[in-house]
Amino acid sequence: RGRFVLAGIPAGPLTLTAERLGFERGTLSVQVPSGAARADFRLAPAAFALEEIVVSASREAQRRAETPATVHAIAGSAIRAAMPAHPSEIANRVPGVWIGAAGGEGHRTAIRQPLTTKPVYLFLEDGVPTRSTGFFNHNALYEVNVPQADRIEVLKGPATALYGSDAIGGVVSVGTRAPSAGAGGEGALEGGAFGWGRALLTAAATRGRDGVRADLNLTRTDGWRDATDYTRQGGTLRWDRDLPGDATLRTTATFSRIDQTDPSAVSLADFRDRPTVNYNPIASRQVEAFRLASALEKVSGSTLFSVTPFVRRNSMEIVPSWMLSYDPVWYRTGHSSLGVLARVRRDFAPLRARVIAGVDVDYSPGYRVERRIAPQKDGSSIRSYTAADPLYDYAVTFRGVSPYVQAEASPTDRMRVAAGLRYDRAGYDYDSRLAPLAAGPHRRPADAAPRYDHLSPKLGVTYEGGPALGLYASYGHGFRAPSEGQLFRQGPAVSSIDLEPVCADNLEAGFRGRLGRLSYDAAAYRMRIRDDILTFRDAAGNRIASNAGETLHRGVELGAALELTGELTADANWSRSRQTYEDWAPSAAVDYAGNGIEAAPGDLASARLAYAPGWLAGARVEGEWTRVGSYWMDPENTHRYGGHDLFNLRAVLPVGSGVELVGRVVNLADRRYAELASYSAFAKEEMTPGMPRTVYVGVRYAPGR
Q1: What is the DSSP letter of 634?
Q2: pLDDT, tens digit, for every residue of 180-202?
Q3: From CA 561, how far away is CA 294, in angstroms rounded?
């Protein structure tokens, strides 16, 4: 709430500096008496923040200029201006990030990796992982209330040394909004093509030491393709309380319920001539997610103590669309979690040193029940099925205890060095309710208890040459334990229980700064991944996962924002990458070493131009261009997708008393494009058609904004 207490300050003259994202820096000279003193700041708004504050790189608020990592933040104001119907509409403005739509709010993610469903990313809400390590879901952002979030941070590259398993490609951290200073509410109602409708409702109040905020997200659509309807009910309840003795308590409860029909990929001919067709209208999923976390923080002198106990419950029942053509199944999976994130931070005067030490504990029992199904075809579509034999039925519990330590110091006024080390002790207890099976397409391992022990270091340095130029370089090591599905849903593989953890080593360097009205950043990276778990699709269509030797990922990422005038702003980003198989021979007759990895575009780019007229406060018009470059469709590198360019338009028109009319047009040029294109000898070209031109209009009530 803008109140800070600085204890242990000696008497005498003092210079205080206050900074907040979106405001100019404020500086005040104070003569501190022998007792207490009070200083009040009033900060003027600024179009661009001189000093951006980030959290995800160290689990502590710190200046981005002193962060030896590539981290980007999307402010809540930008999220609310975009009103994204899908996470890709906001997250893809970060350099080097591509989130592709996969039905409803489902998505695949590419951050220094190909577009993938593999468990190589960590998704956080208020610093707490949305799922346990063992039960990764690549659609994690549909379990988070993105349109009503306060902030999204994207930390790119391995972050295992701080966050543990999962964080190889990067970390996507979503923050919830704090209660408002007074009592009030907000709301938005939106409609659009293909039966789209959404209500975003908020109520908040603060009284004394307590503040409460409640957000509700109700969404539905018929889908633009045949039988691709989608409904979502989600919400966030947050309670902030100031406690005596410089302590705070933040309790957050979130829930999501999703019911959707998943669209199929289509042939190249249907992609061109009838992209609305859905071969598999029976493909569906019902998802439920609940999280409760309570973060207690207490400051005592130069020491901060923090403990965050949490509980989670996730479940999903699904008929997977992508398996109906070669291995039709129905399954239900889920897990519950009990865990705690605890840390202590101590600051030292010499060298502005800081030490953070903590431990993460996660206990997550879960299950999987899977049955073969017999699909019933109606022409070219599968519209019904009957359940058949049980294939998998097991209970599995993930356990993890991970202590870590991080130290920072400034050997000079301009240089800051950070180093960290984490030890992960993790594993599973797997108990099958069906007998082991050693042959066939659905083999089952015997009861097992695999364990993983791993040390993960990181090292980074920043150098501030001034506001115009800051430099940084870092080394990070990543570690990823196999997920329960990779280990215990064996499929046709000879063995899956002995899959090794994925390990990554990343080197990166970059620079960032501000020149007048221009702010910019640039980064270059080289990441080598060992024992990458890759899936080989044989001639029969079976998918077999194995540790695949090495892959190499390298690239450059650029971002810039420019205030052209007081009313006109522009920002743009561009990245180029090359991702290759260095060592992968899935069979004696097949060797992919040296080939480019499929679904890994060489270029990603976007740009926005926004006009906010001074004569109509609150009005805004924004045009956007996004590009996904060409990429290989298969590991053999025989087929290539040419890439695509899309244009979007957004507008806000205030009509008085806090009421705004809002509108968006997605894919303004009505371009035919693929969210994902692939090729295999079994299925030939398969395309997932992207949404055509779509118009959304609505009304929003946001008093005081």
Answers
A1: S
A2: 888 889 999 999 999 999 999 99
A3: 36
Q: Are 146 and 440 spatial neighbours (Cβ–Cβ below 8 Å)?
A: no
What's the number of CA atoms in the CB half-sphere (13 Å) around residue 108? Answer: 15
The tens digit of pLDDT for each residue in 614-656 reads 899 889 999 999 999 999 999 999 999 999 999 999 999 999 8
Burial 582-595 (b: 16+ CB within 10 A, else e): bebebeeeeebeeb
Exposure string for 283-304, b = 16+ CB within 10 A, e = fewer: bbbebbbbbbbebbbebeeeeb
**Which residue has tokens 């809400």?**
125
For residue 534, what are its two tokens?
């890759």
CA distances from 584 to 178, 482, 548, 635 (A): 48, 18, 5, 10
* Average pLDDT of the residues in 363-369: 97
Query: Chain-centre distance of CA 532, in angstroms?
Result: 21
Identify which of 175, 286, 194, 327 has the alpha carbon closest to the alpha carbon of residue 240.
Answer: 175
For the chain, the farthest-separated pair of C-alpha atoms sits apart, in whole angstroms, at: 87
The answer to whether 100 touches 646, Cβ cutoff 8 Å, is no
* pLDDT greater at residue 548 or residue 308: 308
Task: List 609's β-bridge partners, or say none.
Answer: 570, 623
Query: What is the full DSSP assignment across 136-189?
Result: --TTGGGGS-GGG-SEEEEEES--HHHH-TT-SSEEEEEEPPPPPSSSEEEEEE
Number of H helices, E strands in the chain: 5, 40
Class of residue 230 by CB neighbours under 10 A (exposed 0-12, middle 13-18, buried 19+): buried
